[in-house]
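Incident log, structure service

09:12 report received: a user says their structure output differs between two submissions of the same chain.
09:20 pulled the input from the user's history:
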Amino acid sequence: MREQTSIPGTGQKQECVLSVRDLSVSFRSYGGTVRAVRGVSFDLHRGETLAIVGESGSGKSVSIKTIMGILPSNAELDGGEILYDGMDLTKVDEARMHEIRGHRIGLVFQDPLSALNPIMKVGKQIMEVLEKRGIDRKTARERALSLMQDVGIPEAEKRIEQYPFQFSGGMRQRIVIAIALAGDPEILICDEPTTALDVTVQAKILELINEIKEKRHLSVLFITHDLGVVAQMADRIAVMYAGRIVETGTAEEIFFDPRHPYTWALLGSMPDLETYERLEPIPGTPPNMIYPPKGDAFAARNRYALKIDFEREPPMFRITDTHMAATWLLHPKAPHVEMPAGLAHRIARMKEAARHV
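09:34 re-ran on a clean worker, output below:
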């Protein structure tokens, strides 16, 4: 029996399909040990989309690779648990992880070319997953055709015999999604699935993921560096920086009431069609995680940093039942700091637009 946990802010109980607890991962390098993930915790509930957002190098993809058991040889799990279906995935053997990757948790990569065999027909690549589940060849072909149609590939009867290079980038990503769905997973993990695509194709892939989620009652873990990508699809958002989750809340809370200066910076650098103010790039660069900062990792880039930010790491302060952020600005004794005026104006516009949707 899986744990029933409360949906934040509702008081209702919902099945927790994946629970990550205090996950820490490091990498050995010539310069020293890189602390890539530092005490990350989150739950994924049945039927929801949880987006993990942050700049490149924040630890998002490392967290996902740890869940999937595909860390490189120079990586080391320093601690934590990944609880799934009564198992701690950090402790299961490779044979069991291979079965979970094939049939329980589907993964969609950033670059579809890296996930596809360039010298194997796409239909065969989908059929392989089905045949490993004990499905006979004839039925596997029929289901592969059905999956290609489900992910919006036209002329599936013809295209099932084609190779990856004969598909556009967007169509290749649809094939990768079809392969992930062939295992009939209950969780779909999407690791930057639209980064290599143009804006129009991005929108279509996001729409497809949403449709598949609803049709198959999936739980989706969506990884991206772009907050704008998840605006219309995430139920909850976790913002990551320097290996830690620094803010978490419902999508509405993160977009309309952000509290961490890093979340302000992400939103302030996000373009949209209605913005007339100058977009503000995030100053500086992420810290060297061979030598993690003593205090708040974002302090050196934060114009609102307090003296304590350079001395002590902030805890998570609870804002509402659904919303928490790790910033000393939320301490009762901290000076009152308003978010940047330009961002406040953008949020006001977004709220107004949302009311008319």
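09:41 both user submissions now match this output. Likely a transient worker issue. Closing.
09:42 reviewer note: The longest strand covers residues 13-29. Residues 106-184 form one domain.
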